[in-house]
Amino acid sequence: MTRTTPLGAVIRGLVAGTVGTLAMDALLYWRYKRRGGQDSFLAWEFSSTVRTWDDAPAPAQVGRRLYEGLFQRKLPDSQAALVNNITHWGYGILNGAAYGVLAGSLPKPRVTYGPPFGAGVWLTGYAVLPPAGLYKPLYEYDRVTLAKDLSAHLVYGTTTAATFAALSPPS
């Protein structure tokens, strides 16, 4: 049996997390277009409508708090879109690395590990963001909103797991 090295697992996890994040965003963009959205994929993906911190979604707010807390400097409104993208993609990619370490330590990576992983990432947001004042508590959202959010994270997790398995050495 060929086992992956820890470094190999992290690298494959980073790649898998990148592909998983792209898959999740593709689903979210498809939904946006179905609701009548007019932006191109690149304009939507790079948060072209985010102009101020008041417009910025939760990933941008998390990134802003991390930056301002670490460097003790205010970020101008002009950085909201960039911070949103860095935080969103960084979170997806780094979660992929964590997935890589876990899945790489098992005898054989399986796609079936993806949905629980995606659900865990989803649930983590609802555990961390409400106390930070960036989300409402889980029980205050309607089922449709939660199902849409969960399904996007299941796509992320499944795609991350499938990519990791495809990149893993044969056993």
TrEMBL record:
Keywords from the named record: Membrane, Transmembrane, Transmembrane helix
Transmembrane parts of this sequence: 6-30
Species name: Paractinoplanes hotanensis
Name of the protein in question: DUF1440 domain-containing protein
Keyword Membrane recorded: yes
Highest taxon above the source species: Bacteria
